[in-house]
Amino acid sequence: MINGKRVVVVMPAFNAAETLEATVRELPDAVDECILVDDQSSDGTVEVAHRLGLTVEVHEINRGYGGNQKTCYARALAAGADIVVMIHPDYQYSPLLVMSLAGMVAYGEYDIALGSRTLLGGARRGGMPFYKYLSNRALTHFQNLLTGAHLSEYHTGFRSFSREVLETVPYANNSEDFVFDNQILAQAIFAGARFGEISCPTRYFPEASSINFSRSCVYGLGVLKTSLQFRLAKWGWFRSSIFQFPARILERAAQPISLADRR
Ligand SMILES: Nc1nc2c(ncn2[C@@H]2O[C@H](COP(=O)(O)OP(=O)(O)O)[C@@H](O)[C@H]2O)c(=O)[nH]1
Ligand SMILES: [Mg+2]
Protein backbone atom coordinates (compact mmCIF):
# COMPACT_ATOMS: atom_id res chain seq x y z
CA MET A 1 0.00 0.00 0.00
CA ILE A 2 1.08 3.50 -0.66
CA ASN A 3 -1.14 6.49 0.08
CA GLY A 4 -3.99 4.01 0.67
CA LYS A 5 -3.55 2.54 -2.84
CA ARG A 6 -3.16 -1.16 -3.49
CA VAL A 7 0.11 -1.86 -5.35
CA VAL A 8 0.27 -4.94 -7.56
CA VAL A 9 3.52 -5.92 -9.27
CA VAL A 10 3.25 -7.89 -12.51
CA MET A 11 6.01 -9.95 -14.08
CA PRO A 12 5.69 -11.17 -17.67
CA ALA A 13 7.90 -14.24 -17.53
CA PHE A 14 9.57 -16.45 -20.07
CA ASN A 15 12.37 -18.72 -18.90
CA ALA A 16 13.15 -16.63 -15.84
CA ALA A 17 13.96 -19.43 -13.36
CA GLU A 18 17.58 -18.31 -12.92
CA THR A 19 16.79 -14.69 -12.11
CA LEU A 20 13.32 -14.72 -10.56
CA GLU A 21 14.36 -15.21 -6.96
CA ALA A 22 16.89 -12.37 -7.06
CA THR A 23 14.19 -10.10 -8.49
CA VAL A 24 11.49 -11.06 -5.98
CA ARG A 25 13.83 -10.87 -3.00
CA GLU A 26 14.40 -7.16 -3.67
CA LEU A 27 10.71 -6.28 -3.91
CA PRO A 28 9.77 -3.86 -1.10
CA ASP A 29 7.44 -5.11 1.66
CA ALA A 30 4.83 -2.49 0.76
CA VAL A 31 3.96 -4.39 -2.43
CA ASP A 32 0.51 -5.94 -1.86
CA GLU A 33 0.62 -8.71 -4.43
CA CYS A 34 2.98 -9.99 -7.09
CA ILE A 35 1.50 -11.74 -10.13
CA LEU A 36 3.70 -13.74 -12.48
CA VAL A 37 2.35 -14.78 -15.85
CA ASP A 38 4.30 -17.59 -17.45
CA ASP A 39 4.32 -17.87 -21.22
CA GLN A 40 5.11 -21.58 -21.45
CA SER A 41 8.65 -21.43 -20.11
CA SER A 42 10.70 -24.56 -20.64
CA ASP A 43 12.68 -24.08 -17.42
CA GLY A 44 11.44 -24.15 -13.81
CA THR A 45 9.98 -20.61 -13.76
CA VAL A 46 6.56 -21.76 -12.52
CA GLU A 47 7.99 -23.92 -9.72
CA VAL A 48 10.23 -21.10 -8.50
CA ALA A 49 7.31 -18.66 -8.62
CA HIS A 50 5.12 -20.97 -6.51
CA ARG A 51 7.93 -21.50 -4.03
CA LEU A 52 8.33 -17.73 -3.65
CA GLY A 53 4.60 -17.34 -2.92
CA LEU A 54 3.69 -15.39 -6.03
CA THR A 55 0.27 -15.47 -7.67
CA VAL A 56 0.92 -17.53 -10.79
CA GLU A 57 -0.96 -17.72 -14.05
CA VAL A 58 0.25 -20.00 -16.86
CA HIS A 59 -0.58 -19.50 -20.54
CA GLU A 60 -1.71 -22.68 -22.25
CA ILE A 61 0.21 -21.69 -25.36
CA ASN A 62 3.18 -19.40 -25.94
CA ARG A 63 1.62 -16.05 -26.88
CA GLY A 64 4.62 -13.72 -26.83
CA TYR A 65 5.65 -10.81 -24.63
CA GLY A 66 2.71 -8.56 -25.58
CA GLY A 67 0.21 -11.35 -25.05
CA ASN A 68 1.82 -11.96 -21.70
CA GLN A 69 1.37 -8.32 -20.64
CA LYS A 70 -2.30 -8.42 -21.65
CA THR A 71 -2.85 -11.22 -19.14
CA CYS A 72 -0.72 -9.40 -16.54
CA TYR A 73 -2.83 -6.24 -16.64
CA ALA A 74 -6.17 -8.03 -16.80
CA ARG A 75 -5.21 -10.13 -13.75
CA ALA A 76 -3.89 -7.13 -11.82
CA LEU A 77 -7.10 -5.17 -12.38
CA ALA A 78 -9.17 -8.21 -11.38
CA ALA A 79 -7.06 -8.44 -8.22
CA GLY A 80 -8.14 -4.92 -7.25
CA ALA A 81 -4.94 -3.05 -8.11
CA ASP A 82 -4.95 0.73 -7.85
CA ILE A 83 -1.35 0.92 -9.07
CA VAL A 84 0.20 -1.69 -11.35
CA VAL A 85 3.98 -1.89 -11.63
CA MET A 86 5.50 -4.02 -14.37
CA ILE A 87 9.02 -5.27 -13.85
CA HIS A 88 10.80 -7.96 -15.86
CA PRO A 89 11.70 -11.05 -13.84
CA ASP A 90 15.17 -11.12 -15.45
CA TYR A 91 16.74 -8.91 -12.74
CA GLN A 92 17.64 -6.32 -15.34
CA TYR A 93 15.90 -3.45 -13.55
CA SER A 94 16.03 -2.55 -9.87
CA PRO A 95 13.09 -3.92 -7.82
CA LEU A 96 14.26 -1.60 -5.02
CA LEU A 97 12.72 1.26 -7.00
CA VAL A 98 9.25 -0.29 -7.32
CA MET A 99 7.69 1.90 -4.62
CA SER A 100 9.37 5.01 -6.02
CA LEU A 101 7.65 4.39 -9.34
CA ALA A 102 4.39 3.44 -7.62
CA GLY A 103 4.50 6.57 -5.46
CA MET A 104 4.74 8.89 -8.43
CA VAL A 105 1.34 7.60 -9.52
CA ALA A 106 -0.17 6.90 -6.09
CA TYR A 107 0.04 10.50 -4.91
CA GLY A 108 -1.80 11.66 -8.02
CA GLU A 109 0.97 13.61 -9.73
CA TYR A 110 1.29 11.24 -12.71
CA ASP A 111 -0.74 8.58 -14.50
CA ILE A 112 2.32 6.62 -15.67
CA ALA A 113 5.87 6.54 -14.34
CA LEU A 114 8.82 5.03 -16.22
CA GLY A 115 12.13 3.75 -14.91
CA SER A 116 14.48 5.17 -17.53
CA ARG A 117 17.85 3.66 -18.33
CA THR A 118 19.03 6.58 -20.43
CA LEU A 119 18.17 9.40 -18.03
CA LEU A 120 21.50 10.38 -16.42
CA GLY A 121 23.30 8.00 -18.74
CA GLY A 122 23.09 4.67 -16.92
CA ALA A 123 22.37 2.43 -19.90
CA ARG A 124 25.87 2.07 -21.27
CA ARG A 125 27.35 1.82 -17.77
CA GLY A 126 24.98 -1.10 -17.17
CA GLY A 127 26.30 -2.82 -20.28
CA MET A 128 23.59 -2.12 -22.85
CA PRO A 129 25.05 -3.16 -26.22
CA PHE A 130 26.05 -0.16 -28.33
CA TYR A 131 23.66 -0.97 -31.20
CA LYS A 132 20.74 -1.21 -28.76
CA TYR A 133 21.73 2.07 -27.15
CA LEU A 134 22.03 3.81 -30.50
CA SER A 135 18.68 2.52 -31.78
CA ASN A 136 17.04 3.35 -28.45
CA ARG A 137 18.22 6.96 -28.76
CA ALA A 138 17.30 7.28 -32.43
CA LEU A 139 13.85 5.71 -32.04
CA THR A 140 13.16 7.78 -28.93
CA HIS A 141 14.09 10.97 -30.77
CA PHE A 142 11.83 10.04 -33.69
CA GLN A 143 8.93 9.18 -31.38
CA ASN A 144 9.29 12.38 -29.42
CA LEU A 145 9.02 14.33 -32.68
CA LEU A 146 5.88 12.49 -33.74
CA THR A 147 4.11 12.27 -30.40
CA GLY A 148 5.17 15.61 -28.96
CA ALA A 149 6.07 13.91 -25.68
CA HIS A 150 9.57 14.42 -24.29
CA LEU A 151 10.42 11.03 -22.86
CA SER A 152 14.05 10.03 -22.32
CA GLU A 153 13.19 6.54 -23.60
CA TYR A 154 10.17 4.51 -24.72
CA HIS A 155 11.73 1.08 -24.38
CA THR A 156 12.13 0.38 -20.70
CA GLY A 157 10.51 -2.70 -19.18
CA PHE A 158 9.99 -0.98 -15.82
CA ARG A 159 6.78 1.03 -15.57
CA SER A 160 3.93 1.89 -13.24
CA PHE A 161 0.37 2.62 -14.32
CA SER A 162 -2.70 3.94 -12.58
CA ARG A 163 -5.72 1.70 -12.70
CA GLU A 164 -7.47 4.37 -14.73
CA VAL A 165 -4.87 4.32 -17.51
CA LEU A 166 -5.19 0.57 -17.90
CA GLU A 167 -8.98 0.86 -17.94
CA THR A 168 -8.81 3.62 -20.55
CA VAL A 169 -6.30 2.51 -23.20
CA PRO A 170 -7.40 -0.33 -25.53
CA TYR A 171 -4.31 -2.44 -24.86
CA ALA A 172 -6.17 -5.62 -25.82
CA ASN A 173 -5.94 -4.42 -29.45
CA ASN A 174 -2.13 -4.32 -29.31
CA SER A 175 0.41 -6.72 -30.74
CA GLU A 176 1.21 -9.98 -28.97
CA ASP A 177 4.89 -9.29 -29.65
CA PHE A 178 7.47 -6.88 -28.17
CA VAL A 179 6.05 -3.78 -29.86
CA PHE A 180 3.18 -3.97 -27.35
CA ASP A 181 5.44 -2.00 -25.01
CA ASN A 182 5.61 0.84 -27.44
CA GLN A 183 1.96 0.79 -28.43
CA ILE A 184 0.70 1.11 -24.87
CA LEU A 185 2.81 4.21 -24.29
CA ALA A 186 1.60 5.75 -27.57
CA GLN A 187 -1.99 5.02 -26.53
CA ALA A 188 -1.45 6.65 -23.15
CA ILE A 189 0.10 9.75 -24.73
CA PHE A 190 -2.85 9.89 -27.12
CA ALA A 191 -5.27 9.78 -24.19
CA GLY A 192 -3.45 12.63 -22.47
CA ALA A 193 -1.86 10.66 -19.64
CA ARG A 194 0.70 12.51 -17.53
CA PHE A 195 4.13 10.87 -17.64
CA GLY A 196 6.85 10.94 -15.01
CA GLU A 197 10.32 9.39 -15.17
CA ILE A 198 13.05 8.37 -12.77
CA SER A 199 16.49 7.08 -13.61
CA CYS A 200 16.97 3.36 -13.13
CA PRO A 201 20.16 1.33 -13.22
CA THR A 202 20.17 -1.52 -15.72
CA ARG A 203 22.12 -4.75 -15.78
CA TYR A 204 23.03 -6.61 -18.93
CA PHE A 205 24.11 -10.23 -18.52
CA PRO A 206 23.20 -13.31 -20.59
CA GLU A 207 20.01 -14.26 -18.68
CA ALA A 208 18.77 -10.65 -18.73
CA SER A 209 18.75 -10.22 -22.48
CA SER A 210 17.61 -12.70 -25.08
CA ILE A 211 16.43 -10.38 -27.85
CA ASN A 212 18.86 -10.71 -30.74
CA PHE A 213 19.67 -8.34 -33.57
CA SER A 214 16.98 -9.51 -36.00
CA ARG A 215 14.21 -9.40 -33.38
CA SER A 216 15.44 -5.93 -32.42
CA CYS A 217 15.04 -4.87 -36.06
CA VAL A 218 11.46 -6.16 -36.16
CA TYR A 219 10.79 -4.24 -32.96
CA GLY A 220 12.37 -1.07 -34.39
CA LEU A 221 10.18 -1.19 -37.49
CA GLY A 222 7.14 -1.73 -35.28
CA VAL A 223 8.09 1.37 -33.31
CA LEU A 224 8.29 3.46 -36.48
CA LYS A 225 4.89 2.17 -37.55
CA THR A 226 3.37 2.93 -34.15
CA SER A 227 4.65 6.51 -34.28
CA LEU A 228 3.21 7.06 -37.75
CA GLN A 229 -0.10 5.53 -36.67
CA PHE A 230 -0.11 7.89 -33.69
CA ARG A 231 0.39 10.95 -35.90
CA LEU A 232 -2.30 9.90 -38.38
CA ALA A 233 -4.74 9.24 -35.55
CA LYS A 234 -3.91 12.56 -33.94
CA TRP A 235 -4.57 14.42 -37.18
CA GLY A 236 -7.82 12.49 -37.52
CA TRP A 237 -6.77 11.05 -40.91
CA PHE A 238 -6.75 7.38 -40.01
CA ARG A 239 -7.44 5.64 -36.73
CA SER A 240 -5.84 2.20 -36.56
CA SER A 241 -7.22 -0.36 -34.13
CA ILE A 242 -4.77 0.53 -31.39
CA PHE A 243 -6.19 4.05 -31.27
CA GLN A 244 -9.85 3.04 -31.13
CA PHE A 245 -10.80 4.93 -27.99
CA PRO A 246 -14.27 5.63 -26.64
CA ALA A 247 -15.75 8.85 -28.01
CA ARG A 248 -15.34 10.73 -24.71
CA ILE A 249 -11.56 10.19 -24.84
CA LEU A 250 -11.33 11.11 -28.52
CA GLU A 251 -13.16 14.38 -27.97
CA ARG A 252 -10.83 15.35 -25.20
CA ALA A 253 -7.65 13.91 -26.73
CA ALA A 254 -7.52 17.00 -28.90
CA GLN A 255 -6.51 18.91 -25.79
CA PRO A 256 -3.42 17.99 -23.81
CA ILE A 257 -5.04 17.66 -20.42
CA SER A 258 -4.49 14.92 -17.94
CA LEU A 259 -6.53 11.80 -17.41
CA ALA A 260 -6.96 12.99 -13.85
CA ASP A 261 -8.88 16.05 -15.05
CA ARG A 262 -11.27 13.91 -17.03
CA ARG A 263 -13.30 12.34 -14.32
N1 LIG B 1 6.27 -14.09 -23.43
C1 LIG B 1 7.48 -14.00 -23.93
N2 LIG B 1 8.33 -13.22 -23.30
C2 LIG B 1 9.56 -13.13 -23.78
C3 LIG B 1 10.01 -13.82 -24.93
N3 LIG B 1 11.31 -13.50 -25.12
C4 LIG B 1 11.64 -12.64 -24.13
N4 LIG B 1 10.60 -12.43 -23.31
C5 LIG B 1 10.49 -11.57 -22.13
O1 LIG B 1 10.58 -10.25 -22.59
C6 LIG B 1 11.32 -9.45 -21.70
C7 LIG B 1 12.36 -8.68 -22.47
O2 LIG B 1 13.20 -9.55 -23.15
P1 LIG B 1 14.76 -9.48 -22.97
O3 LIG B 1 15.34 -10.61 -23.70
O4 LIG B 1 15.07 -9.39 -21.52
O5 LIG B 1 15.10 -8.11 -23.72
P2 LIG B 1 16.21 -7.01 -23.44
O6 LIG B 1 16.56 -7.09 -22.01
O7 LIG B 1 15.58 -5.73 -23.83
O8 LIG B 1 17.38 -7.36 -24.31
C8 LIG B 1 11.91 -10.39 -20.65
O9 LIG B 1 11.24 -10.19 -19.43
C9 LIG B 1 11.65 -11.79 -21.19
O10 LIG B 1 11.26 -12.66 -20.16
C10 LIG B 1 9.05 -14.65 -25.58
O11 LIG B 1 9.31 -15.30 -26.60
N5 LIG B 1 7.81 -14.71 -25.04
MG1 LIG C 1 15.89 -8.09 -20.26
CATH-defined architecture: Alpha-Beta Complex
- Helix-strand string: EHEHEHEHEHHEHHEHH
Reported by name, the CATH topology is: Spore Coat Polysaccharide Biosynthesis Protein SpsA, Chain A
| Strand arrangement in the largest pleated sheet | 3-2-1-4-6-5-7
* Largest sheet: number of strands, sense, barrel closure: 7 strands, mixed
Distance between the termini: 23 Å
CATH homologous superfamily grouping: Spore Coat Polysaccharide Biosynthesis Protein SpsA, Chain A
Helix vs. strand class: alpha/beta
With helices defined by DSSP (H or I, 4 residues minimum), what is the helix count? Answer: 10
Average pLDDT level:
94
Our Rg estimate from Cα atoms comes to 17 Å
| Bound small-molecule species | guanosine-5'-diphosphate, magnesium ion
Strand content: 5-15%
Low-confidence stretches: none
Protein traits:
10 helices; binds guanosine-5'-diphosphate; binds magnesium ion; Spore Coat Polysaccharide Biosynthesis Protein SpsA, Chain A; alpha/beta; 40% helix
Please explain how this structure is put together.
This protein has 263 residues and is of the alpha/beta class. The protein has a single domain (7-252), classed as Spore Coat Polysaccharide Biosynthesis Protein SpsA, Chain A (Alpha-Beta Complex), CATH 3.90.550.10. It is built from 10 helices and 7 strands. Strands 3-2-1-4-6-5-7 form a 7-stranded mixed β-sheet, sandwiched between helices. Helix 8 (180-190) runs parallel beside helix 9. It is globular. Bound molecules: guanosine-5'-diphosphate and magnesium ion. Guanosine-5'-diphosphate (GDP) binds next to strand 1 and helix 3. The site of magnesium ion has 5 residues, from loops.
